[in-house]
Amino acid sequence: MFNVLFKRLIILSLILNTLPVFSQTNLLGIAQGAEDQFEQLLNKPAMVSPPTAVPLGRNWFTLKTDVHVFTDRISTSQVAAVMLDIENQGKYFNGRRSKLTTHIIGHTADETIVDNISITVIGPFHIRTPFRSVVKTMINTYALFALETRQTPEDSASNNKIKNFYAPRYVEEVSINGRKYTYIRMLTIQDINASFLPGAKRSLERNATPVIDEVMQMLINAEKK
Questions:
Q1: Phi and psi (nearest 5°) for 129?
Q2: What's the pLDDT band for 27 if we cut at 50, 70, 90?
Q3: What are phi and psi of 95, to 5 degrees?
Q4: Tens of pLDDT along 144-194?
Q5: Given a cut of 60, is residue 14 above it in pLDDT?
Q6: What is the spatial distance between Cα 103 and Cα 120, in angstroms, rounded to a whole number?
Q7: Res. 224 pLDDT band, cuts 50 70 90
Q8: How many helices (H) and strands (E) does the chain have?
Q9: Which stretches of the chain are assigned E, i.e. beta strand?
């Protein structure tokens, strides 16, 4: 236990000394109680909390999902390599319920500007959603990786399908019972136009879990491809 706490203190110190002030509050961590659920979460993604679709009016909803997993199938550095292979996300995320294609259109000093097309299957509907985002690596070490994706303000203002897309990712190497595992957590918050979807709130919340579960399974199995 002491070694785990000491490691966490080192990681926290590293974060505070390498991240800009405005970014510190955005970094995810291991969800409270996750380690107590280790056996249930080993290679079996689960929601940190149930998906929520909050009505905004005019058929728009804020959809929030938060999923995590422990895995022995992929290391922290391998997850980082997959997530940073931005141009080739379609190679890793090409599932039955969800697909993602990406194209890099530019770089700044510490950010990558990306055009995305996500396809999500909800019942008979194949929802194609193009949007532009900025991807930023928050921290990248041998044992800790964090990345943040945000929809650009310009695209958020003009996009009639999705707005305010925000997706931080957190990956940490952990030691449990003398073995090393990778903990992965993916939070996604987005405003969605669900005018096409009957019973939108219920449909969004009911279908969010299998979609995001598939995404996490594709990630932890990415090294097998």
A1: -130, 105
A2: low
A3: -100, -175
A4: 999 999 999 999 999 999 999 999 999 999 999 999 999 999 999 999 999
A5: no
A6: 18
A7: low
A8: 6, 9
A9: 46-47, 52-57, 60-71, 98-107, 112-122, 125-140, 144-151, 162-176, 179-193
- Listing DSSP states for 192-203 in one string gives EE-TTSTTHHHH
Q: Tell me the two tokens of residue 80.
A: 């980082």
Question: What's the residue count for the chain?
Answer: 225
* Secondary element (H or E) of residue 152: none
**Partners of 117 in the β-ladder:** 101, 130
Q: In 3D, which of 186, 188, 77 has the Cα closest to residue 139?
A: 77
Q: Is 37 exposed, middle or buried (0-12, 13-18, 19+ CB in 10 A)?
A: middle
Q: Give the pLDDT band of residue 115 (cuts 50, 70, 90).
A: very high
What residue segments make up the domains of the chain, in order of their start? 2-224
In the numeric block, which tokens belong to residue 159? 């996009």
CATH 3.30.530.20 assigned to 2-224: yes
**In 3D, which of 54, 60, 51, 59 has the Cα closest to residue 215?**
51
